[in-house]
Amino acid sequence: MNSVLKLILEGESLDTAQIGKILGMGPDAVERELADLRRQGILLGWRPIINPSYEAERRVRAVIEIKIRPEGLGGFDGLAERISAFEQVESCYLMSGGYDLLVVVTADNLYKVAGFVHERLARIDGVQGTSTHFFLRAYKKDGFIVNDEGLRRDQPSVSP
Amino acid sequence: MDDSGRFVARHVATLPKSGIRDFFAIVSKMKDAVSLGIGEPDFVTPYHIREAAISCLEKGRTSYTDNRGTQQLRDEISRYVAQYYGPEYNPENEILVTIGVSEALDILLRAVLNPGDKVLYHEPCYVSYAPSVTLCHAVPLPIRTLSSDQFALDPAALRAAWQPGAKVLVLNFPTNPTGGTADRAKLQEIAKFAIEKDLLVVSDEIYSELTFDGDHVSIASLPGMRERTVFLHGFSKAFAMTGFRIGYACGPVAVIDGMLKVHQYGIMCASIISQEAAVEALRNGRDSMLHMRDKYRERRDFIVRRFNELGLPCHLPRGAFYAFPQVSGTGLDSMTFASKLLEQQKVAVVPGTAFGAAGAGFCRASFSTSYERIHEACERIGRFMDTVQKR
Predict the structure, then answer these.
(1) Alpha-carbon gap, residue B351 to B186, rounded angstroms
(2) ipTM for this prediction
């Protein structure tokens, strides 16, 4: 794997200068590497991972299972891309099993999610049915344990 | 006033306190210190191993076990040691499960040393070797290892350090604090010497899985050595299980029997919870272990390169998770270097002298910590070096 990408994926918050020092490259070379990764469509972007109980993050999240009828030239892709384009949609995946699309949405409140389902999704030709599940509480998010209370509190800072 | 000191035995009263303890006392009071002084993995024990311990509690398995350790664990140890180190040990009478290698070393020395016997070991070394020997009323005979040899034990130096009355040779490769290792050729010469002088070899191989370059060779696997070697190993470093306090000794029957006597009166048995977790580590822990080893190797490459760039000559340690840079070029001795670095830049490294006189002029810096911290520590050390060199 690309060494810059590998470092980013390890989840430590390193800036390009730090990454450069670790890998023995100049910060410019790291920037170039990142630009290449974006150009190639490998690195889509990055954003901070925030504890969902933090006030500004207290939005409603739901997963919606969607059954679709792939019709016309676009097939599954055409419908999936249309649904992905909604700003409420955080992620959208084509799934195997009992339904076709798994969509994660966030909104300010429950009514906005409900509105999205019945005013937007349900009106799309080809959407046959939806099943909406609301998130109640996060225990682990994007690889981070939420409320990780001082795991190594008692570890001595110097030991033999 | 406390005058209970009069009750303390002479050989204990005169035993020096661990240099690391004093240093820890200073660091622990300091805020924002970046510590490269931690002698344990920064990884949390892999979850499947922790889960095995949880399951042991859930099942109500909370009793004593056989003094030697559970049959299941001894069977697994026998299999693991044969597979990765070579020698085959009988789980019935050649394997003893202990409270880490620390206990294993202690009871082994107590089981084999008579007062006045001499024990050879290479320095810089783990902090407990010399005191453990002294506590047995025996005599420590340190052998200096050198940075120019990458801190491997030079067989000629071993021969020169030998004295009549020497009974035991303690080896620790890869070495804490230097990361030194010994290749097959060196070990063969050491083995030849041990046979010639009829030495019992104690091989502490706690860091053996964390060998980054080349294969780890156990001296116990060399011809004629199994019958005079006690192989000590444990779970703390390879499987990030320091808090479980679990290790083991493998060796010839009579020596293991001697250790068993000391162990059964002093300890009874290792915790059953830790023993069950250890079984899981041996059965299914290899992937997690290899993942951690890769991480250590990457961090090693970074910290060693940075130390050399900063003007602190540092050899590339082939094992363990410690860099051992030479700091004497700054004109400061190891203790002064470490103290000033801590005081001025709040970075903790351990003075080399904490690991014996042979550590003078060096410091130990653990790379068992995140890139972020290693990076920050190196930036601060860089600033410190600027002030030192301007003088």
Answers:
(1) 28
(2) 0.77
